[in-house]
Design brief:
six-stranded mixed sheet, about 200 residues, single chain
């Protein structure tokens, strides 16, 4: 994730090994990926971490994010990183409706290896390695608000809180179209139920 510095240029998270805390898990939905002249559809997610040992000029921690193909294949980077992070391999029993809930990643610390890659005149920070925090290191507490967004349990409030870039990406997915159509249908159905009722205030 590129962070804008006061000079107007993007300042990437520092390279090196960092203690970090997961602060966001964002379901991006199914996206069209163009690679080496071929196009394919893949379900994508984004995970973001705040670095506990590096802060920007305003005192806030650097944040770095990584996008993954949402796959439990043995060869998938997403699975490999999660297994390295938890320090334990997944089994088939960990998947499915009663399996691993990605919401559990929020607030969990880790050790991140960040590397820089320069493309043209811009430098990007990428997560190249991840693992549990070393023994004896105190568990850090997140500074930023934890954000979890899933298209399977769509929340308009959480969606509206995301950056314009993330919202634009998510809105291109078929899961977003389905979720928002269902939300609209539910809203209309709820309103229809009360067409003949006197309006009243209700608490949330």
């Amino acid at each position: 994730m590129k962070l804008k510095a006061s000079s107007g240029e993007f300042s990437p998270a520092p390279a090196g090994t960092h203690i970090a805390v997961c602060c966001k898990f964002i379901d991006l939905g199914t996206q069209q990926i163009d690679w080496q002249g071929q196009s394919k559809l893949q379900r994508k997610v984004m995970i973001a971490w705040e670095l506990t040992n590096e802060t920007m000029q305003d005192g806030r921690p650097f944040i770095i994010s990584q996008r993954y193909t949402f796959s439990t294949s043995d060869k998938a980077t997403f699975r490999k990183h999660l297994e390295a992070w938890r320090g334990k391999a997944f089994t088939d029993a960990d998947f499915g409706d009663n399996g691993f809930d990605t919401k559990r990643l929020l607030g969990v610390p880790c050790s991140l290896i960040v590397a820089h890659k320069t493309v043209g005149d811009k430098t990007y920070a990428n997560v190249t390695g991840i693992g549990p925090i070393p023994k004896g290191v105190p568990r850090p507490e997140p500074v930023n608000e934890l954000v979890y967004f899933s298209l399977e349990a769509f929340s308009r409030e959480v969606f509206d809180s995301l950056s314009d870039g993330l919202k634009e990406t998510i809105s291109k997915s078929p899961e977003y179209a389905q979720a928002t159509n269902m939300a609209t249908a539910d809203h209309h159905e709820t309103n229809a139920d009360f067409d003949d009722e006197i309006p009243f205030n209700s608490g949330n």
